[in-house]
């Protein structure tokens, strides 16, 4: 019988998911660590800023805030790679700002969050032909833009207190 996970907080669900993915890797059944962390990060930014979550097919941004600002969201779980760890690549810069969220390894506490303009993201990250985009490292982002950790932590905590409502632009 499977355990009832309906009463777990978001952070606990992420911890369970990480354990499951690790076990599947150990058994040689999966090769990647694809996680729901990116979707959770988008919900954190949406909860913090309001607005709408864009459909998956929307190019260059994930959230549009009430003032019309286009926000790209990038997330990273704590990794053994440390500050050399890379965020997923940017292939276009048709957004106003990017919010980077970094979660602690295993606990999924929000370690820090930075908001960086599109121009600054492009300036600090090098182009990679391998990914056909610019893929900033944790080291490049940790001092760029402005610190929004407290704002994003509050929004992250609020996700445990309410059902998440997906709001899409159609």
Automatic annotation (TrEMBL):
State a single Pfam family of this protein: DUF6998
Superkingdom of the source species? Bacteria
Q: Where is the DUF6998 domain?
A: 37-79
Q: Which InterPro entries match?
A: DUF6998 (IPR054267)
Stated name of the protein? DUF6998 domain-containing protein
Q: Which organism is it from?
A: Kocuria subflava
């Amino acid at each position: 019988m499977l355990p009832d996970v309906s009463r777990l907080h978001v952070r606990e669900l992420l911890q369970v998911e990480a354990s499951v993915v690790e076990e599947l890797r150990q058994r040689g059944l999966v090769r990647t660590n694809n996680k729901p962390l990116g979707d959770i990060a988008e919900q954190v930014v949406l909860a913090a800023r309001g607005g709408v979550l864009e459909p998956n097919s929307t190019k260059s941004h994930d959230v549009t805030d009430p003032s019309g600002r286009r926000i790209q969201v990038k997330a990273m779980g704590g990794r053994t790679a440390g500050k050399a760890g890379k965020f997923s690549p940017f292939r276009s810069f048709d957004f106003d700002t990017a919010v980077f969220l970094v979660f602690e390894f295993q606990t999924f506490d929000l370690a820090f969050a930075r908001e960086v303009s599109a121009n600054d993201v492009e300036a600090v990250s090098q182009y990679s032909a391998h990914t056909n985009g610019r893929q900033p490292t944790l080291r490049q982002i940790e001092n760029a833009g402005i610190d929004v950790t407290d704002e994003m932590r509050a929004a992250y905590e609020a996700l445990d207190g309410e059902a998440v409502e997906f709001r899409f632009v159609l």
